[in-house]
């Protein structure tokens, strides 16, 4: 029989215990490597995203992947994973032979992007309109008031964060995760790159339109919602002159 005898372990028991310890160590090391990989991936993602938002990486520029790896002290694997995520979110395009280019935003892109934004936001809100509670409506009005205050104070960083949070509420209320997956890269492309010029009138008009969106939701009026989203807020022709100024598109 195998096992303990007079307080001693047999050779087979010792081997079994050593094997267990080896598996524990291996699992612990694997966990550490996984955490290190996830940490490196987040580091790369945050770095590249901040560089784009600050204008250090401009639309159309080609990334120097070797320089980024050396600067951050990371391997090619977390860098690749972060690039794949950023491509999925609309920030950049990965070309053959490891060429990675920051996406540009041309005037010709806006009619299509605005049409998608208006159509899908209307669909998402209208389908879940009855789920908007008084508390949610109040939160939307609070965010809109913060946006106006930020615009008047010239604090576009606060405006951007509250603006994003306002539109994100639509997807917190709606169960339509597929619409969110479609719209997230479009929103990132429209909002996360630095705008060239500050046109206060346009941003204040957007605040007014946000108020109309909330009014339509509170009134449970899909007709009013369609008007403000498709004929004002996300209508390219209605916004074209401001788009040209803000994005410096001539």
UniProtKB/TrEMBL annotation:
Domain HTH gntR-type, chain residue ranges per copy: 38-105
The entry's keywords: DNA-binding, Transcription, Transcription regulation
A GO term, aspect molecular function: DNA binding
Source domain of life: Bacteria
Region: Disordered, residue numbers: 1-34
UniProt xrefs under InterPro entries: GntR_C (IPR011711), TF_FadR/GntR_C (IPR008920), Tscrpt_reg_HTH_GntR (IPR000524), WH-like_DNA-bd_sf (IPR036388), WH_DNA-bd_sf (IPR036390)
Biased composition annotated in UniProt, kind: Basic and acidic residues: 1-20
Signal peptide range in chain numbering: none
Protein name per UniProt: GntR family transcriptional regulator
Organism: Desulfovibrio porci
